[in-house]
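ENTRY TYPE: paired fold submission
RECORD: A
CONTENT: sequence, then structure tokens
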Amino acid sequence: MANSGLLSKKQRLVLSAAGCILALVVIVLADTAFSSFSRRIFNLCGIYIILALSLNLVNGFTGLFSLGHAGFMAIGAYTSALLTMSPAQKEMNFFLAPITPVLANIELPFLPALFAAGLVSALVGFVIGYPVLRLRDDYLAIATLGFSEIVRVVLTNMQSVTNGALGLKGLPKYASTYTIWALAVLTIIFMFALIRSGYGRGLKAVRDNEIAAQAMGINIARVKIVSFTLSSFIAGIGGALLGHLMNTIDPKMFTFSLTYNIVLIVVLGGNGSITGSVLAAIAVTVAMEVLRFLDGPLNLLVVRTQGLPGLRMVVFSVLLLLVVIYRQQGLMGKREFSWDGLLKKFSIKARK
């Protein structure tokens, strides 16, 4: 231990290696020992980590208020589904109207299709972001929310491409535990590398003060559009993984409530904190399943109900309201996990 009370570089590397091994053990145990239901919740945690980080890139690190993530997820999910389904599966799904001939016989491996899902979402994000990012604050939120709703309506009405309101069923089961968590870890590493780079410092400068950032020579418009496009790419990847995990997709999956769940995670974890998004994604995903009993009949001795669908989301809405009022910085604020910070915290508690 150094005289300053901080860990040496070697000690940090040893602890980080031990943490990675522990995480790998947890993933292996989850894939082999968990029930199918528990494993699905575990995998949803990984997907929500990816989605929360994609939204935090825009909302937390760039200072833009976007509510259109469900739209980018939908684009990614449908792109990957249409590229990975076999011609026979497509023929079974499209019985009301035949699928467009261009897509009928296309079948790609999962990884190229997943990358294509991210690229298509990024392309749409660039096209939408170029004019929309001229708006600010509430106006930007309303515009992106409108875009998300437009995507859902378009998916519902493009019968020969998306199968309309019926959606797509029987998607290949490519979203395994290892695939999802490998991509979640890669997203975390990418976010840390991006935020600690010179470009990441430019993002934070735009977030904190656009006038000062522009005076320093930062191209505000380019920073915003690149951030929005990268966020759309990651959201498309997350949407594709969600579709392949559920093995079915339809337009009703990608309503505003899905975006609300991601916003809840980002706000609870802390705008501008990668660690906060990871912790909050796991906590909120697990809590959503643990509290599912609230939607059914309740017997609370004094009060009995026959079932109140949506009560679970009321609880989360109240939680979000309390966080906004009493702890606006969220769980981690803008802080990140570090071994030195953990050591200091335990040292302070020990002295007390």
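RECORD: B
CONTENT: sequence, then structure tokens
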Amino acid sequence: MGGSAFAAAPGFESIFPAGGQIGTRVECTVAGKGLEGSSLLAWCSRPGVVLLAGEKPKKFIATLAKDAKPGPCLVRFYTDDGSSPPRVFEVGNLPEHLEKEPNDAFTEAKSAEPRMQAVINGVLEKAADVDTHAIRVQKGKAITLELHGYALGSPMDPALRLLDSRGVEISASHDSHNLDPRLSYTPGTDGTMFVQVLAFAHPPAADVALKGSSSHVYRLLLTDEAPKLATNEPNVLTLPATIQGLLTKPREEDVFTFTAKKSDELALAVHSRAFDALLRIDDAEGKMLTQADDGESSDPSLRWKAPKDGDFKVVVADRFHGGSPEHAYELSVKPFTPTLTATLDTHAYRIEAGKDAEVKITVKLNGTFTAKLQAKALDLPLGVTADPVEVPAKGGEIKMKLKATPEAAASQDPFRIEISDGTQTFAATYLIPFTEPRGDLLITTDTQPWLTVAAKAADKKPVAK
């Protein structure tokens, strides 16, 4: 008899602060239902990051080891009933600060402790909330302000305002490659400036009023280091090629020439976090053959077959004609090989000892595989097994059955599902839960779904009253 594939689990709406500096300990507050119990545990996808319950309800201490790898990772909270959906937690190198309330107006902002090269953690706690942060700047030294709110999974469409010492707006930003703002400015004098953070509803609401809640968590990155400019890109590519480039000014297009033979099939992709990239292929005379501005994520990708022998041009641009020292990207051009995406139906599964649970996997093929594809489950706990499943030649939905023996012990752990043709292996992923995506989160998919193994009902200990 099949058990439910969906875990009854605690809710997890936000964690504040949503990150910390390597080599430090951070007290975090979590918001959501079912997060008060003493049996609540935390899991993090990043080695070297450990979260343990604090002395008060909904308080956790995050310890970030000195050798922890910087970047975004995922955090889950779980009990015997299952796991919450994961949320993004950032591991960084910069000093971290917490916002200082009250700070709704620039006249209330505290002394400008945060210099550049820092992160300010804040939360817009109520409707109409506006956070104002004082920062120190130097004449002629360009500053960059980058806010992560939507990218963390917060239900917000945030905006930034940069004010001078009198409170006059001199720059503003709303959306970038997603709903999060990013702006650059070069101060004309030394002194103090003010950054204001505000947010509208996401998903969009009927009104345009400013919104806030305990889940409107954000991280504001302050930097004034000159960006590391990409080295001069080669005008001629030798395939396969992966290069770093930079669109230094508005309306700039980077053009690279490559040679291909008729029917050569190539895979091209551009990755950029700072702008909405456009990828185009022209012939030798500059006539457009094809283009893309979106792929599996917000980054563009192309599968292209050369129509004849000759030279061709690959062009990288900003879809909105922007350009700046922050418009960095990575371009990849390589021979096409068959690939696939395997998407799980949920982020967590539950199985009871002596029963089974079904995992649904949607497989989409890009190209033709000559060998048979087979899906396998890996890292399953003792007492749980799954027979391999063959993938149809055209892809589609497949179902894998997880089976637990009657003696299987209760456990909580991530596992993996991989699909292989014997030469290539592809990890099955689930989508990071979020409502009405409009651009990428810092992490969009994950390869570690959660598995809750529950003891048989007869074996469960009665709860003391």
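NOTES ON RECORD B: The mean pLDDT is 90. Residues 14-92 form a domain with the Immunoglobulin-like fold (CATH 2.60.40.10).
STATUS: closed
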